[in-house]
Design goal:
The protein has about 280 residues and is of the alpha/beta class. The chain is built from eight helices and seven strands. It has a seven-stranded mixed β-sheet with strand order 3-2-1-4-5-7-6, with helices on both faces. Strand 2, helix 2 and strand 3 form a beta-alpha-beta unit. The mean pLDDT is about 95.
């Protein structure tokens, strides 16, 4: 049986950083991978003004995601098309088109329709903190969790197709140990890490879910790095990963971690699909 993985993230580039090597690994072994991106990344940074303008960024970032998905072997990319809500407290939060302002039932029904038609065994999205508190990440988490449970209930959104209950819901997580490794490596090459250290202290305890799957994937990390390079507007010369030696970046980027959110009570798993027929 061919397995199916359904991943929901908020912006182009979210998919590559936390799950790129994992998606490439499963795609290479015959798993059907669907990637849903809830926004177009309209208000992300522009690392080089030659790459985009504020008016064209959404189109450029869509193309960047298609580039990345192709290199990862993703079979299908679905854009929900909401506007990037920006960081917490910014004017973009108030835009009626922003993802955070979309009616919950509208977003959940759209995700339910996709889950029921693709029939994945495994769904992956952000943890409850969104990784670092971005409003769109948190919204993607909330709506995906709701859709995961609603998809198997025939009484919910009956017009969205026959009920289908995925077997597992995972959160992609970045443990504190990863950031500690990265800070140590940045310090070793002479970078000022004071800001990173203070951020780490503030973030302590956010990633409290037990890590269920710890992937180290050297065979697909190159695909992940190539996918990240597709996101040129977001990964300019000031990106910390541009400042580290290539072997260090490969080692860090080969590590990806997941916490099983449903069903509860499972211990460590070798991979996302272990034990599924």
């Amino acid at each position: 049986m061919t397995h199916s993985l359904f991943a929901v993230f908020a912006h182009p580039d979210d998919e590559a950083f936390g799950t790129g090597a994992t998606m490439a690994h499963y795609a290479a072994h015959g798993t059907h991978v669907t990637l849903v991106c809830t926004t177009n990344g309209d208000v992300g940074e522009i690392a080089d003004p030659a790459l985009a303008t504020p008016d064209t960024l959404w189109q450029v970032r869509q193309d960047e995601l298609r580039c990345a998905a192709g290199l990862l072997g993703v079979h299908e990319v679905v854009f929900l098309g909401y506007r990037d809500s920006g960081m917490q407290g910014t004017p973009e939060n108030q835009d009626p088109r922003a993802f955070v302002n979309a009616p919950a039932d509208e977003v959940v029904e759209r995700l339910v329709r996709l889950i029921r038609s693709r029939q994945p065994e495994v769904v992956v999205t952000f943890d409850p903190t969104g990784g670092y508190g971005h409003p769109d990440h948190i919204a993607a988490h909330l709506h995906t969790v709701a859709a995961f449970h609603a998809a198997g209930d025939p009484a919910r959104f009956p017009a969205a197709g026959p009920a289908w209950q995925p077997e597992r819901l995972f959160y992609t997580v970045i443990p504190r140990s990863f950031w500690e490794q990265m800070i140590a490596q940045l310090r070793a090459v002479g970078e000022d890490v004071s800001g990173w250290e203070s951020d780490l202290e503030e973030a302590a305890g956010l990633m409290v879910e037990e890590i269920t799957v710890a992937h180290v994937l050297p065979d697909t990390v190159d695909a992940k790095l190539a996918a990240l390079a597709c996101h040129a507007t977001q990964f300019g010369p000031d990106n910390p990963f541009r400042k580290l030696p290539a072997p260090v970046v490969r080692e860090l980027m080969s590590q990806e971690y997941f916490a099983l959110a449903w069903p509860e009570g499972s211990g460590r798993l070798a991979d996302l699909f272990e034990g599924l027929v």
